[in-house]
Predict the structure.
Amino acid sequence: MFDYFTAKQKKLFTPGPLGVSLSTKEAMLTDLGSRDTAFIDTVKFIRERLVELSGASTEEYTAVPIQGSGTYSLESVLTTIVPKKGKVLILENGAYGRRQAAICKVLNIEHRVESFAENEQVCPKRVAQILGHDSSFTTVSVVHCETSSGVLNPVVEIGKIVREKAPHVQYFVDAMSSFGAIPFNMIESNCDYLVSSANKCIEGVPGFGYAICRTKHLKSCKGMSRSLSLDLYEQYMGLEKNGQFRFTPPTHTMLAFRKALEELEAEGGVEGRANRYKANRKILREGMAKLGFEEYLDETLQDAYIITSFKYPTQQNFDFKIFYEKLSEKDQVIYPGKVLDADVFRIGNIGNLHPQDMEKLLQCIEEVCSEMNVTLPLS
Ligand SMILES: *Cc1c(COP(=O)(O)O)cnc(C)c1O
């Protein structure tokens, strides 16, 4: 039988699911009915706090939680906001940009994918050129931190260009892996829709995502969704009507998220969280450099402090699968790479991780390399 209480606690150095604090998990101990005033109050608190965190006001913006993982929320936005004859310009420099294209394909949404190298940012000038030549787009979308590599895209510049070149186009940002830790302001970014999820930098438990939306636009999306359960407009209308979800809400997960939001505030908000993640990442990068590991991205592309891609060592004895498993045996969970053009692995530093966890991981990496007969420092 599975023993829930002695199951090994591992440290997750991944892009998700992420470790969460004990107090956040403990917040789930209450069963609440979906019509319970304590639950309705929790949903209201969460929705207001999310809008605040995005630098916007609830007069102009609204936060809509959606059951499921982050991708469900991405799909909810795309299926709802793009008109039947609309067209999306997807600015892609990695797997998460390509996921948006995959969603559009399945939903039969006309789209153009503009690709950039995975070890480069999306180029705002190129976006200006495209929007200058082609006026058929209704939506432009981009990923803030492309978690597959760690590249941070210039979302403010892109938003400015969208507003200048195509004022009526909706600007959509996938801020899944950055929201709550990397400052983002809806107004400054000219952003109409942003998506993130419960178990990334806000450190709730997985189970729902959310879209922060320009209310006026969302209200114009009635009947546009190609999906019943992912209809963002209906989800919003339901929540506005009586504070309730249309379908079974993730009650325990939302209690945990409320707690996670309180803990974010106690840590000093986005700035406080950013400081911890930056400290984590500094230890990781310096430690890995000392061991001779080489990073996938240039020094000029290290602005995000979420996840770092490292190249596989060239030594013959290095085998990622063994490296991964040996680390996991030591309760350290890292992540495979997700770029197409290089052999890399990734180490995240978000979630309930602290500097001492990063130190411990480095020590385990050193031990595992020694067990594998990989000589350190790598040359
Ligand atoms: C994690 C993540 C997602 C969503 O992934 P899910 O597995 O569906 O939660 C989407 N975009 C980015 C940039 C992410 O980091």
